[in-house]
Amino acid sequence: MIGGGYVGLVSAACFAEFGLDVSVVENSPARLAALREGRIPIYEPGLDRLVESNMQAGRLSFGDDIAAAVQGAEAVFIAVGTPPRNGDGAADMQYVHAAAKQIANALTGYTVIVTKSTVPAGTSRRIAQLVREARPDADFDVASNPEFLREGNAIGDFMRPDRVIVGLDRTAPDSGARAEEVMRRVYRPLSLIEAPVLFTTLETAELTKYASNSFLAVKISFINEMASLCEKLGADVHDLARGMGLDGRIGRKFLHPGPGYGGSCFPKDTLALSRIGQEAGSPCRLVETTVQVNDARKIGMAGRIIAACGGSVHGKTIAVLGLTFKPETDDMREAPSIPILHRLAEAGAILRAYDPVGMEPAKPALPPSVIYCQDALDAAEDADALVVLTEWTMFRSLAPRALAETMKGRVIVDLRNIFDPVAMRAEGLDYQSLGRP
């Protein structure tokens, strides 16, 4: 596994749990040292135990020597970053290409080089070209195996997936049969639970990841717009979402209104798919618009908070519950809290924030004036207003009376709809949520 980041580490630990021998190559000295000591540099429930047990069993190891890791390997997975390229949003492929060249020089026998990173269509064929240029004698095939891991539930998603997508080079002399046999053995434990393993062409697999994430982003933005419309018309977005979700063609998931999507995947992948469509001469207008709608949504939430505070937050103390882009992760990438809190700080607000695991990762991204608190009620102490930005389970159990007694003001702006409006208002709180009367 080339890359010990989120995708690489979770995938490596789960493959080891399948009973495979897995070597992870990580070129960051600090991250490598942490992994070798059993310290997990990311927050993902259950990952620390999975890594520890498989290291003790001798199935999972970490190093920085690609040649040693690749020697004798039947499959080599590339799981390095593909961040947005500055300027146009396209995926930056420099790390993938560098890994491909290093793998080429390390090959010792037949190997399937598998792209786990999210990459544009055509990347696997480009990897094959780079390997052939570096090692004309190499015996290898390429495959695309995109990940579909939700942060906070990644292990469950890997071990009990909705589907596994494997792209093969169907133009190869054997139509990819040899690579398919290797990949079937890699994922054999999933066949025992009848998880669907879909074999496609390389380009189809590469595009499927972008298409899936972008469709979900469209779905989130749609329900956010419906929440705004519900507020204008006196409808309830939760009942609307239930009515929609009971339609089997639509489904219930990702119909929860919020301050906009964030994280490591949706923002990056929608931008990349927009760019892919533009370069192919087939623009993805829905996805392009979704990117714009989501950006405007995040900025608009700050204005909503200011309006709830009477049109000004200057000198007012605002308690902020949740900073990460979603619960059960410490990931701050593209989190709605970033633009919202910067806007509030610029408007003169005093910000007191609490997040169960995200405060340290949040500090570089948030205004330096933010005060980080010990718990939710500490953040709410003498606050003029309280804002919910991440729906951590622990926040749901906060008693309305405790908030009313702790806060100085009455304003609650619940951007995740985690509280009961009736219970909140019964305590004299000025409660506002999204798309609910």
Automatic annotation (TrEMBL):
What Enzyme Commission number(s) appear in the record?
1.1.1.22
What Pfam families does the database record attribute to this sequence? UDPG_MGDP_dh, UDPG_MGDP_dh_C, UDPG_MGDP_dh_N
Catalysed reaction(s) here are:
UDP-alpha-D-glucose + 2 NAD(+) + H2O = UDP-alpha-D-glucuronate + 2 NADH + 3 H(+)
- Listed SMART domains: UDPG_MGDP_dh_C
Q: Which InterPro entries match?
A: 6-PGluconate_DH-like_C_sf, NAD(P)-bd_dom_sf, UDP-Glc/GDP-Man, UDP-Glc/GDP-Man_DH_C, UDP-Glc/GDP-Man_DH_C_sf, UDP-Glc/GDP-Man_DH_dimer, UDP-Glc/GDP-Man_DH_N, UDPglc_DH_bac
Sequence similarity: Belongs to the UDP-glucose/GDP-mannose dehydrogenase family.
Q: What is this protein called?
A: UDP-glucose 6-dehydrogenase
